Amino acid sequence: WRGKPSRMPADSLASVVGELQGVLSKDVSNAVAQERSLLSERRRVFHRLHRQRRRRRGAAHAAAQESPPTFLVLGFVTNPRTPKTREWIRQTVLVPAAEVGAPALIRFVVGKRGLSPRDVQQLDEERRRVGKDDFAVVDASDFNEAGGIYSCIDKLFAWFRHAPVAYPGASFYAKADDDSFVDVARLASFLRPAAGLPRVYGGYLQYDSFVTEEWRHCGWSAGPVGAAHARRHGCPKERRVYGPFPFVVGALTVMGGDLGEMSRDEPR
After folding, report:
1. Which of 43, 208, 210, 239 is the one with CA 20 to 30 A from 26?
2. What is the Cα 208 distance to its own chain's centre?
3. 22 burial via Cβ count (<10 Å: 0-12, 13-18, 19+)
């Protein structure tokens, strides 16, 4: 077609453009409104599911604390001034253990000697915040009286004297450091075949030798081969040395119920 195109009057063109803009604007507005509505609904569903999950976790944790089983009693030796560490343990150890019904009672172990008034106040505030007293206050030194490794050792021995009295009848009593991650359900399953056996003693295993005349250790290693080498080259050859022998360390120590009762009755 070689003819010249006809021209639309300016007022008609403006009218068509206006109509098109109105239609497009309305469509865009409708699409934006629908998208906002979908996002709002998604947010409501997400928050509802999140609240339901928190309620289920809280109920499971409360049920486990209200009806403590007596298969495994586990104490985390903790610094009273590290509440964030305990909160991490509650979320990553206590709550999952309760959700799967692990037969364990878990406590945070603090010493009653050496706590400042501020320490006592903060522990009380923490109890109110979590809605439950999951502490075990034992007859041992703590931060102000003997800090560092000494209070940890003191609380370790005090816990094994305290636990069989406070929670009698357990098949196993255990202790862990608060920087240890303990899969409680798996630990309970691992221990179950040993329930009822005499003098069960286990945990995080290492090896060492012992100089009886000097009442000191020598030749420590994380494995038996390394310990044999360390005894040969690191222990005094002129002394009587026993070992290497296995022992468990503070990261995880487990005793059978009968050993727990022996710890309870042993004054030293």
Report:
1. 43
2. 29
3. exposed
> Under a CB-based contact definition with an 8 Å cutoff, are residues 203 and 115 in contact?
no
SS3 252: strand
Packing angle, helices 257-265 and 149-166, rounded to 10: 110
pLDDT per residue over 164-181, tens digit each? 999 999 999 999 999 999
Distance CA(228)–CA(3), nearest Å, equals: 106
* Exposure letters 215-229 (e unless 16+ CB within 10 A, then b): eeebbbbeeeeebbe
What tens digit of pLDDT does each residue of 153-167 get?
Answer: 889 999 999 999 999
In whole angstroms, what is the distance from residue 94 CA to residue 61 CA?
Answer: 7
Q: Token pair for residue 181?
A: 């991650």
Whole-number Å distance between alpha carbons of 34 and 205: 61
Sequence-separated (6 or more) residues with CB below 8 Å from residue 181 = 92, 93
What the block records as the tokens of 118 is: 């501020």
